[in-house]
Write a structure and sequence with these properties.
Helix content is about 45%, strand content about 15%. It is an alpha/beta fold. The structure holds pyridoxal-5'-phosphate. Pyridoxal-5'-phosphate binds near residues 38 and 263.
Length: about 450
């Protein structure tokens, strides 16, 4: 089929009428599907059920160093869990603090601590006139939610297939002392599935921030979430690289087992420099006597080591890869060549990012909703929920069944075509009106 913009007005009008009929058919199907949030599906949760057998009432809940996990204590996590998370995060266990069930919670607390008490003796951010954060876009809505909550000015930084646009990052970080942080999902980013190239990581590590207390919030949520055995992204390890570049304290790296075992019932961790760890622990000690060691032990006994995590992630991939591929195939078949959208084909992570024509995303999401398919709100991938182009939509393929994904993806393409055809048709019609007006004017002159 021709690109919509190249069709005559009549051709496009006929395509539009046809699409309206197809859309009506979907409406009649009374669908109730959800592609909004990146949640594992039931089959994915089922593969971790054996973890529940890793401990029982007969189990010895003593750690290798003799710690009784049933009792209070161990502020920063049991050693064997630090080793497991260290292996997963590619960091020395000595640079790891284990937290509770959510890395988002740790990110919030990290910002909150900087806000109320300052980072390593620097002025608390609450005492400053202005705090700015760089936000790669499109990005993760809950990151932006944290920095919006604290009232920081959020500055969008364009994402590229190699990671955030480092020219923009350097310009802000190296010159403006009000810029205190940047959000970054370095691997299989949310929502595009992009990974930082070697050059991007090197440039991150070599930032020369105008603010002493500038920090990179390196949210490695999808560090081991490959979709393929043979196509995997690898990154230079950021803590090591920052150290090499003479900025050992510049990064907080976050991760969790949320999309490895059970979201909301996993374990989370920070990897960072010893200086930062000391700073963090000075607050932590007032917050808790220690996080859930039984859960830490349960994860360790279940996985045993990094190879255990790797094998487990293959099982996740086997469940969700067909869903990603089904969407890609349907988008290729239905949308390729029409000139009305582009989408990412990630090697891992939880999302596909779709870019439509300018000023169509809200309407596409609304059309899908009216036909029973819930998508992430248009705008959610931008700070303040404001996508200035209104063209980005995050697609979360993991939760629905494969059959449902196929229906939802098909309907999505119908909505994209319908809204785009309508828009181009309106433009063509207004062009005709404008042309007529021009001609009238010319004649009058
Ligand atoms: C980039 C990113 N970071 C963090 C999270 C949440 O992690 P957690 O469950 O550990 O709080 C998500 C969940 O979607 C995410 O996409």
């Amino acid at each position: 089929m021709k690109a919509y913009a190249e069709m005559t007005k009549e051709e496009l009008a006929s395509e539009y009428e046809q699409l309206k009929k197809v859309y009506k058919k979907y409406q009649g199907m009374e669908l109730n599907l959800n592609m909004a949030r990146g949640k594992p599906c039931k089959e994915q949760l089922d593969i971790s059920m054996e973890m529940m057998d890793a401990l029982n009432s007969e189990a010895d809940l003593t750690c290798e160093d003799g710690t009784d996990c049933r009792n209070y204590g161990v502020l920063d996590g049991i050693q064997e869990c630090k080793e497991l998370m260290g292996a997963m995060m590619e960091n020395d266990p000595d640079n790891i603090i284990i937290f509770g069930n959510s890395s988002l919670n740790v990110m919030f607390d990290t910002v909150s601590r900087a806000y109320s008490h300052g980072i390593m003796g620097n002025t608390p951010w609450c005492k400053l006139d202005k705090v700015k954060f760089l936000c790669p876009v499109p990005g993760y809505d809950r990151h932006f939610g944290i920095t919006e909550y604290f009232g920081f000015e959020m500055i969008p930084v364009p994402m590229t297939p190699e990671g955030p646009d480092m020219d923009v990052v350097e310009k802000y970080v190296n010159n403006d002392p009000a810029v205190k942080g940047i959000w970054c999902v370095p691997k299989y980013s949310n929502p595009q599935g992009y990974s930082c190239s070697d050059e991007t990581v090197r440039r991150f590590a070599r930032l020369t921030p105008a603010a002493n207390d500038f920090r990179i919030f390196w949210d490695n949520a999808y560090g081991v979430h490959h979709l393929y055995d043979e196509r995997q992204d690898y990154l230079i390890e950021i803590l090591q690289e920052c150290k090499r570049a003479g900025h050992p304290d510049m990064v907080y790296k976050f991760a969790s087992t949320s999309k490895i075992t059970f979201p909301g019932s996993g374990i989370s961790a920070i990897a960072t420099s010893l200086n930062n760890m000391k700073d963090i622990k000075s607050t932590m000690t007032h917050q808790t006597i220690g996080h859930d060691k039984v859960n830490q032990l349960r994860h360790v006994r279940f996985f045993k080591n990094m190879e255990g995590i790797r094998q487990h992630m293959r099982k996740h991939a086997a469940i969700i890869r067909p869903k990603f591929e089904a969407i890609e195939e349907i988008f290729d078949t239905e949308l390729s060549g029409l000139g009305i959208g582009s989408w990412t084909k990630p090697n891992g992570g939880y999302f596909i990012s779709f870019d439509g024509l300018e000023n169509t995303a809200k309407e596409i999401v609304a059309y899908a909703k009216k036909a029973g398919v819930t998508l992430t709100d248009a705008g959610a991938t931008w700070p303040y929920h404001k996508d200035p182009h209104d063209n980005n939509i995050r697609i979360a393929p993991t939760y629905p069944t494969l059959d449902d994904i196929k229906i939802a993806a098909k309907l999505f393409t119908v909505c994209v075509k319908l809204v785009s055809a309508k828009k181009i048709l309106e433009e063509k019609t207004s062009d005709v009106v404008v042309e007529k007006e021009d001609n009238k004017e010319k004649k009058a002159n």
